[in-house]
Amino acid sequence: MATETMLPVHEQEVERSVFQRAVRSCFSFPVLMGALLVALNAVIMFPTFRLEPDTWWHMKLGQQILLTGHWLKADIYSFTAFGNHPLAYEWLGEVALALAYKAGALRGLHTLLFFLTSLILVLTYYYVTLRSRNPKAALVATVLTIPLAGMCFTLRPQLLGYVFLLITLICLERYKQGLQKSLWILPPLFLIWVNTHGSFILGFCVLGLYWICGLVPFKSGGLIMEPWQPRQRIHLEIVLLSGCVTLPFTPFWGQAFIFPIEKALFFPQQSAHIQEWLPMNFSQWEPKVMLVLLLAFLAAQVAYRMTYHVEELFLVLFTAYMTCVHTRFVILFALVFAPVMASLLARWTPTYEPENDKPVVNAVLIVVIILAIGRAVPTRKELSKRVASNFPVEAVDYLRQHSVPGPMYNDYGFGGYLLWALGPEHKVFIDGRGDFYEQAGVFSDYISVQDVHPNALAILQTYRVNSCIIQRTSPLATLLRARSDWKEIYKDPISSIFVRAPLLQSVAAVDPFPIKSSSYNSIANPGGGAR
Amino acid sequence: MLDRNEKFNQPDSTGDNTSTSAGSRGNNASSRGHFAVTGIFRKIFSFHLFLAALLLAGAYVGTFTNGHQAFSPASQSLRWVESDTLWHITVGNLILNTHTWPTHDIYSFTAHGSPWIAYEWLGEVIMALAWRAGNLHGLAVLVMVIISVIILGLFYLAYLGSKNTKSAFAACAVLLPLSAISWTLRPQLLGYVFLIITLIVLKKFRQGHTKSIWILPLIFLLWTNTHGTFVLGFGVLGVYWLSGLKELQFGDIYGRRWTPRERQQLELIALLSLIASIITPYGTQLAAYPLEMAGSQPMIIQIVQEWQPLDFSASYGKLFLVLFLAFWILVIMRQPKFRLEDMVMLMIASAETIMHARFMVLFVPVFAPMLAESITPWFPPYDETKDHPVLNFGLVGLILAAMVFFFPPNTRLNQQLASEMPAGAVQYLAAHPDVGPTFNYFFWGGYLIQNRWPVDKVFIDGRLDIYEYSGVLADYMSIMSLKPDVESLLSKYHVNSCLVPPENPLAILLGSSPGWKEVYRDGTSVIFERSGTGSNPANASAATPVNGKIAKRKMLSATG
Question: How does DSSP assign A64-114, residue by residue?
């Protein structure tokens, strides 16, 4: 009897203990630090609305897939590459963007952007904690790398690619630490990834690197390779093979797999002209942060004789190289560098002691942070204003109200927005699908026109361009303004619209095309964020 | 850095061995003399000399050819001549002719009369003397001599770090392309020489050779009057001095404390060098100039290519990255020890080079000895017994003969200069003195000063400091990037004609503007003149240059 009466009490205690543990872990200090990172992200992301020209066409393609239920087989959005075969290799990400817009228009996009960037920061923090085993040092390292990661925080499918890369790194680290099951998440992850963004190649590279670096034992000074156990190795190989098997499961079969490799090798124009593919500009402050961190890390090798696994050192140095050569890779550097820096910082940072944690205080602070973020969310009106300050919103309104003769040449940075707002009825000259236009030979023509090469006007003639929508202060605008055969019919702080003068006279009776110039000099850097 | 026993030139022991060997064969004087000559021969034409000659050949290829087509006359380039080279020569000539130093601008119509000093006057005088001696050929000889001194200095510096000529050679060879990006004939090249000498002297001083350091005040006297890089020299001196103030051991970084005598000597040298740096025709102004530039010329730093961050899309940028990162992998694997001053200078030089490509001149000499030392274990020390002086002699002779044989003659140099500079347009301007004031392409400013001054003054040239202060540089940038106010800016300076490359956007704009007419065009340049003003195009045919043609108002086919 005594035992019968004792059992429920014991179970109650066990239940209470489980519940307490769950509460303690939910409101632990590392979780509070994660919430702080999200708050920091809000401070960075809320005053701006980091939409890119690419965001718009991604959304349009996603919308089109949702509407029709199939993938574009021939381009319908441009008059320069009309009918060519575009590859919507990021279709899943595009659908996600379209759904976010459908759910809440600009606020939906803003929420998605904030969610994804916060997720990246929290996952980075978790990964760094996992590697350094010190949540405090991990927080400092993550915060220090935010300026670098933040350079890539714009709403595009590649944000999802970064999330997947972090999940891959976390799974591999957990696997190395003996948690065998976590690796099985990778094949389904690759299935989603290959349909979302070309960065899945990086995932395979990381997986392959971990595999190779565990094949043989090696030690030289501070550099080591620890071999996998035979069982571990087989497990890793099976996962790697399973990941490969998922590759053809895209609407484009093997093409989606080949595309990132093709892009890296056969699209030199993009690498030479698109900002994110250009080398890191170390005259800006964020790259200087990278420089300081990297040099401090290198100096620390001599001062502290750190020991590295080959794979982690390779990842740090490789991403440092790639970042210097192509700015776009800076976020990868941030992701792989943060754990290394945290391991260094852990020398001076006291470790986290769960028994000294104060879950109630943490809970209160987490709630306060959530409420503060909720209050700071920008309104629809603010978001619309920010979009209008970067994209030719007013010019598009003008085009909706007036029959401007086409085909219309447009600035690269305006293409996505025009495609979104007026397509497919209005066809663009070019948009952010640079690889697609480079294949069609349009991209190099665009560069010649935009940079006012000697054949600029001939190219416009070749494409039978009758009007242009371009940045108001661009060299091409100055050229067209000086010519008697072109007429500027519209201008605002960001954009100008030009029409061939003879066509202007023929349609003037229908529409006098008055110059609209409301706030001509109101902003210092018109169109600065458009490209 | 590490103590190794190899000597740069033949060690005394080698001579001893040779003497012993000779003594065993006979004691007569003639035989002693014979072996002494042989010893000297072996000493001079050692493997080290062959390595040095190879580096010089590399430098020659880097300077006078397009690299992969070495020694092919067709590929020889004139990239060592900059637009700046030419105005420096003009200023040097002016100083030599008048024996006075300029204090205000006389070369431009945009900043005419603005205060300006020839802060690199000594370098300019040297360049003017070379020009007087042999025109472009004289300049080619000068540039090759200076570059040779740089390369040999770098080689010796790398040797001082590694005590192994093979690793020193390997380090210099891989760093040669990085060093070559600064090889244009400007006073700055002499500054590079002084920097390497300073580093050598300080390294030797650290290694216990206390006499050579007395050369530094003289170096600083010349350096301050030659180029603003003397500030780097003081920076290096300061780092050495600070690094020896305390005994230090921090992981693999160590600092050895100066002995009181060493420290006093270093401080005295620094003081004398400081005093020497104010002995200039402009007093303390020259010493203050580099600091002034860093603080008050933000636009130059923003737009001038050599002040911009290192271009990592270029092959030299990638080479820099690969070498730098590979070096750190070696450091992690080998865990060598570094002197504090070396580490501090490497960090500063790397950061500055990445932010401003111009600082490659500092990075290369700082990095070379450290790189050489880190790869030394891969290279066996020099074994004198395996050396072949006769073979070395033959190979060195071949290298030098090839360099002399392929050295570009004056006629070819002039042709190359004419193909890169607006030679035809200058003839047109000479025939039409009423065309100006002429807006000119920045890179041609020096050429125009050399060939048209004082008849025509330039809009802009390489003396960007005065143009930044007077606001001309900002206006020039607006004009060249076709900002909406191009026309008003040209009117602001009463510009009557424009001389630009034919493919330049400004040329396309002016060709499209009814207010301008094209009066001259060749493959290199085009001149536009305001419509209804200036010279009569009919007269222009009289001055048609060799390969140019007087263009009538030619509509581009693009206009339809």
Answer: HHHHHSS--SS--SBSSSTT-----TTHHHHHHHHHHHHHHHHHHHHHHHH
Q: ipTM exceeding 0.90?
A: no
What's the pTM? 0.88
d(CA A128, CA A178): 17
The reply to whether residue B331 touches residue A477, judged by beta carbons under 8 angstroms, is no
| Average pLDDT per consecutive 10 residues, chain A (531 residues; last block may be shorter) | 51 71 87 96 92 94 94 91 84 96 96 97 97 95 96 96 97 91 93 94 95 95 93 94 91 78 77 90 94 93 90 96 96 97 94 88 95 94 94 96 93 96 95 91 96 96 97 96 93 95 62 41 31 29
Residue numbers of B between 178 and 197 with CB closer than 8 Å to A: none
Tracing tokens 């690269």 back to the chain, one arrives at A412
- Closest-CA distance, B422 to chain A, in angstroms, reads 19
From A325, A453, A482, residue closest to B509, measured CB to CB: A482
Distance from CA of A331 to the nearest CA of B (A): 18
Rounded Cα distance, A303 and A429, in Å: 56
In chain A, the residue whose alpha carbon lies closest to the alpha carbon of B303 is A283
- Structure tokens given for B422: 């607006």
Q: Is the peptide bond before B454 cis (omega within 30 degrees of 0)?
A: yes
**Rounded-to-integer distance, Cα B165 and Cα B161, Å:** 10
- Judging contacts by C-beta atoms under 8 Å, the chain A residues touching residue B512 are 457, 479, 482-483
Three-state DSSP string of B119-159: CCHHHHHHHHHHHHHHHHHHHHHHHHHHHHHHHHHHHHHHH
Between B369 and A49, the higher pLDDT residue: B369
Phi-psi region of A48 (alpha: psi -120 to 50; beta: other; left: phi over 0): beta
CA-to-CA distance for A460 and B32, rounded, in angstroms? 86
CA dist B146 → B66, B184, B406, B476 (Å): 19, 10, 18, 34
| Cβ atoms of residues A286 and A150 within 8 Å | yes
Contact call for residues B108 and B442 (beta carbons, < 8 A): no
* B204, two tokens: 């030797």
Residue A272: closest CA among chain B residues belongs to which residue?
B313
**Distance (Å, whole) CA A381 – CA B195:** 60
The minimum CA-CA distance between A210 and chain B, rounded to whole Å, is 18
For A269-291, give one letter per residue: b (16+ CB within 10 A) or e.
bbbebbebbbbbebeeebbbbbb
Q: Is B329 on the interface with A (CB under 8 A)?
A: yes
Q: Write b or e for each residue in A465-493: b if 16 or more Cβ atoms lie within 10 A of its Cβ, otherwise e.
A: bbbbbbbbbbbbbbbbbbbeebbbbbbbb
CA distance B519 to chain A (A): 17
Q: What pairs with residue A496 in β-bridges?
A: A470, A491
Please tell me which of the candidates B252, B321, B334 has its beta carbon nearest to residue A321.
B321
- For residue A452, which residues of chain B lie inside 8 Å, CB to CB? 482, 505, 508-509
Q: How far apart are CA B98 and CA B238, in angstroms?
A: 38
Q: How far apart are CA B328 and CA A399, in angstroms?
A: 57
Q: Tell me the C-alpha to C-alpha distance, in Å, between residue B279 and each of A172, B70, B92, B221, B503.
A: 65, 43, 19, 7, 47
Q: Which amino acid is at A354?
A: P
* A–B interface: beta-carbon pairs under 8 A: 141
Residue B14's pLDDT band (boundaries 50, 70, 90)?
very low
| Cis-peptide into B437, omega within 30 deg | yes
Cβ-contact B429, B436 below 8 angstroms: yes
**What is the per-residue pLDDT for B321?**
97
Share of chain B above pLDDT 90, in %: 71
A454:B556 CB<8 A? yes
Between CA B182 and CA B190 the distance in angstroms is 11
Chain A positions touching B351 (Cβ under 8 A) are: 291-292, 295
Question: How close, in Å, is residue A285 to chain B by CA atoms?
Answer: 11
